[in-house]
Amino acid sequence: MSNASASGLVRPDVTEADARTIARECYGLEVTATELGSNQDRNFALTAADGSRSVLRIDNPVFADDARDAQHAALESYRAAGVTATAVLPGLDGELTQHWRGFAVRRSEFAAGEPMVDLGYFASPVLEAFGALSAASANALAGLEHPGLDRDHMWDMRVAFDEIGRLAGSISDEELRDRVVLAAASADEALEPLVDALPIQAIHGDLTDDNVMGERAADTRVYPSTVLDLGDLSYGWRVAELAVTASSLLHHEADRPLRVLETVTAFHRAAPLAVAEARAVWPLIVLRAALLVASGWRQLEIDGDNAYARERVDGERAIFDAATSVPLAEATESVLASLGFAGVAAGSGLQLVAAPARVSTPPLRSLLPELGGDAAVLDPGVESDDLASGAWLDADAEARLVRAAFESGHGSAVFPYGVYRLTRTRVDAQRASETWPIATEIHLAPGDSLGVSAPTSGSVAVATSQGVLLELAGGWHLAIDGVDAVVEPGAPVAAGAPVARVQGSTGARVISVTLVRADALTGADAPILAVDEPEAGCAPLVTPERVPAWRRFTQDPARLLGLPSLAQHDASADELARRSEIFASAQERYYERPMQIERGWRHHLVDTTGRSYIDMVNNVTGLGHGHPGVADAVNRQIRRLNTNSRFLYRELAEYSERLLALLPEGSALDTVLLVNSGSEAVDLALRLAQAATGRNTIVALREAYHGWTMASDAVTTSAYDNPHALENRPDWVHVADVPNRFRGTYRGAGTGAKYAADLGADLQRLADEGRDVAAFICESVLGNAGGVLLPDGYLADAYARVRAAGGLCIADEVQVGFGRMGSSFWGFEQSGVLPDIITIAKPMGNGFPIGGVITTKRIADALATQGQFFSSAGGNPLSCRVGIAVLDAMEQEDLQQNALRIGGRLADGFRALAERHEIVGPIHGEGLYLGVELVRDRETLEPATAEAAAICERLRELGVIVLTTSERSNVLKVKPPLCLSEESADAVLAALDRVLTEGW
Questions:
Q1: Is the pTM of this model over 0.90?
Q2: CA-closest candidate to residue 548, choices 530, 570, 576
């Protein structure tokens, strides 16, 4: 039998053999029984001879029949509301509750699906789904009334604090016990003014990741589906349903606890929270976490053989650590911000509080009346012109901005409050940097001592040799750090009254001014204590995810300093909405929740919050973003001349000669035609081939992408870009089999001759039909497939067959050429061939729109039969000068060799990952055009399409931009700027390893 105590419950003494007996005697079933975990009851999985399964539950004797009847009524409420839950199955006598040797017994349907508690990382849609399910539960049970709901139990959050007090003594780890008790007390204190305003209703009470079964969706993520175990059903605070759910999710990414705000906002959308409930969310999360820890230790103390409880102790500790890693007051402000509530706590609600009135003095004179010279407001932000060419990465970047201000005659230099500092951005980091300052930082030129005045009236709260804290009206405080106080605590001060001095110095001096709410400064868990303390006088900074809370805790001191307010917030959602208004549905964008990118440098991109990303997809900017040589070339040439190629100027011939010099020795290609893009280059190449041969038929490979113009799209056969591509090609295009030795008709080594023979057969059929081939167009490496190298011998054999049939060979080098292969400058050199026509574009201008065609004069001159060729911007002085600058930089920076070296490092790293993670299949490519193919089965090569998309989303969170390609969209395309560094390559590998280990 069971023994109960006031501080825990021992599970019923029922064995698997007993479970088989119960199944036979009460349900007429012959089964096998396997015990499942439980803290206070006994649960068994029953399997009948026909394979059907069910779950047997033996309730702890402390639970009465009316509680069980209430659970049955709740299941009916769930069913009526469309909430999936396991039904209770009747026994031989037709009753839902059976009795066996003094125990209450029930048998339920077996819930199909996957357990979720141990799944690792949960993506944002999964967190939202938990919030929606929790809200659906609360909504379904809102009208339920039953005597069995009115019961006392330890998991009722209304008594959680008292239960923690009773159980905490079981925690033998003294440091942990003290933390649990202190956290619980703080949470209870925060709840005290709210309890009378919190709605009470029937709630599940334990709707956690451990009490639902998950269902794997089309995106391969597991979503909560079926509600389990109503053992804690009772009346309780409605918001506790949410808090219990949210707390259970914290351990899935314990170092980012604020991610569960997505669960909170999803709940709020379906079951709107009142202000008091919103304020109660995080205190209840903390209480639940503390109770889990205390209960877990107590359970082991009284039921040491409970393997389930022992397994859960570490997870419960992780939940508690995550819940308390953010100061309680800050987490509550984050909740309020995420739900759109304004105001500060007042009673059980919120009230709006005015910030101090704006002063009308000249800049900084309200604070520093003796200051000489003008104040320079510096721009350390993401879009600052002063931080170009990677200057933001220098350790002294901020000091250099200050020096420049002083050298230009300014007496002071100001780093504004709330401007995300690019100067604090870290690269190759999986977590965002602290970039958002919560104070105004003022640098003073060397000079004599200066008096410091109160910008507004108040009273002195703190006065030291390090700073002054003034208490203002409306609950605000003004902190002036880096000054020596000349007032005493408690003294009233009027606006303009002296409060401190800045010491004279032969070097620069720095002070900071923070306008902050009192509740950010007070208590043992004061939010300000969780902000890294900066050097004396400097502004503290927080990470982007903490900004919503600190925008509530603080105000811009600019209003008191006579400065313009420049504070920023993440406006990416607004920008997305703005773009959606003007975009067509066919225009693509990256990511489910795109970041707003406003800065690039080398192989790094930076969003508007100062978060950096390793760019692994931008083969357009081959040199890297923001290249100073290209920028200078544009600046010089645009000031001097930019016209069209019908005029005579030096740059066109110079650039064309440079391009021709890059061709293999002995090439007969001698003519360059310049356009604006790869699509135009391909379009022109097709026209040249048709004009030169007098034929129309173009042979293109299946699964290829060549562009978006009418002609280049006609030879684009990728079903990924156009699902109907093979059905609607014009009659002058013939689609040949793609020589993909991994997924094609022929696989493995030695397939080149077979594919070429098939192409030869196609050419013969075309000739027999009177459709002689004009040209064969092929990427030198199958870029759209993810960098799949052509089978050995294929391209040479194919070119020979095409030429024998009277056709021309076009090499599309738009993606794979220009040094990207590392071991060769051109992709076609990998196959030892020389095409008749080459198309190039993307990297030619490092982002500037340049495209080109290289061919022979004979072929080019054939175009005259169709009229004159002219491109308004193609080959103009500006584009040519940019192209020359790109070629210069590639040579000076040895980027082709870097592509070889870093590409090899990446490929080796990806292959090492394949040894540890079954989802990683073939690694394609060469140099810095690689593809990581993700598969569900290495034998069948079933594509992991949905997984690949989800993995890209998770990598973005970890600071890596990788996207998918191929017909199946299951290949991670790796084609970064050629300047990619070893450090960044290793960071990419580490991030991918983490994702494949933890989940996506």
A1: yes
A2: 570
Supply the DSSP symbol for 424.
Answer: G
> 107 near 22, Cβ under 8 Å?
no
Quickly tell me which residue has 């039921």 as its tokens. 303
The tokens for 305 are: 């053989």
228-248 per-residue burial string, b: 16 or more CB within 10 A, e: under 16: bbbbbbbbbbbbbbbbbbbbb
**Which tokens hold the place of 982?**
């070893």
State the DSSP string of 195-232: GGGS-EEEE-S--STTSEEEEE-TTS-EEEEEE---TT
Assess whether pLDDT exceeds 60 at residue 5.
no
Taking each continuous run of H as one helix and of E as one strand, the counts in the chain are: 25, 45
Question: How confident is the model at residue 587, as a pLDDT?
Answer: 85
Query: Which of the four pLDDT bands, split at 50, 70 and 90, describes residue 724?
Result: confident
Q: What whole-number distance in Å separates Cα of residue 281 and Cα of residue 881?
A: 60
Q: Say if CB 491 and CB 459 are below 8 A apart.
A: yes
- pLDDT (tens digit per residue) in 861-897: 999 888 888 898 999 999 999 999 999 999 999 999 9
Q: How does DSSP classify residue 96?
A: S
Q: Please classify residue 490 by burial: count the beta carbons closer than 10 Å to its beta carbon, then call 0-12 exposed, 13-18 middle and 19+ buried.
A: exposed
**Confidence band for 4, pLDDT divided at 50, 70 and 90:** very low
Distance CA 441, CA 558 (A): 11
φ, ψ for residue 574, nearest 5 deg: -65, -40
CA distance 715 to 735: 8
In DSSP terms, 47 is beta-bridged to: 32, 53
List 202's β-bridge partners, or say none.
Answer: 235
Q: Who contacts 71 (Cβ-Cβ below 8 Å, separation ≥6)? A: 88, 148, 230, 231, 233
Question: How far from chain centre, in Å, is Cα 453?
Answer: 45
What six digits make up the tokens of 263?
Answer: 């669960």
Residues of the chain by 3-state class (helix, strand, coil), percent to 5? 40, 20, 40
Residue type, 104: A
Dump pLDDT digits (tens) for 197-211: 999 999 999 999 999
What is the pLDDT at residue 8? 58
Tens-place pLDDT, residues 483-518 = 999 999 999 999 999 999 999 999 989 999 999 999
Cβ–Cβ under 8 Å, residues 513 and 478: yes
Which residues are CB-contacts of 543 (< 8 A; sequence separation ≥ 6)?
Answer: 431, 432, 433, 434, 435, 436
Buried b (16+ CB within 10 A) or exposed e, 590-613: eeeeebbbebbbbbbbbbbbbbbb
Residue recorded with tokens 């990414």: 253
Tokens 């079954």 belong to: 918
Residues in the chain, overall count:
1000
Residue 18 to residue 100: CA distance in whole angstroms? 10
Within 10 angstroms of residue 465's Cβ, the number of other Cβ atoms is 9
* Beta bridge mates, 108: 55, 88
| 74-79 contacts at long range (C-beta below 8 A, 24 or more positions apart) | 74/141, 74/144, 74/202, 74/204, 74/230, 74/233, 75/230, 77/140, 77/141, 77/143, 77/144, 77/202, 78/137, 78/140, 78/141, 78/227
Q: How do residues 178-188 score in pLDDT, each as one tens digit?
A: 999 999 999 99
Q: Are the C-beta atoms of residues 738 and 703 closer than 8 Å to each other?
A: yes
Q: What is the pLDDT of residue 2?
A: 33
> Tokens representing 82?
């469309």
In contact, 901 and 908? CB cutoff 8 Å? no
| pLDDT computed for residue 586 by the predictor | 82
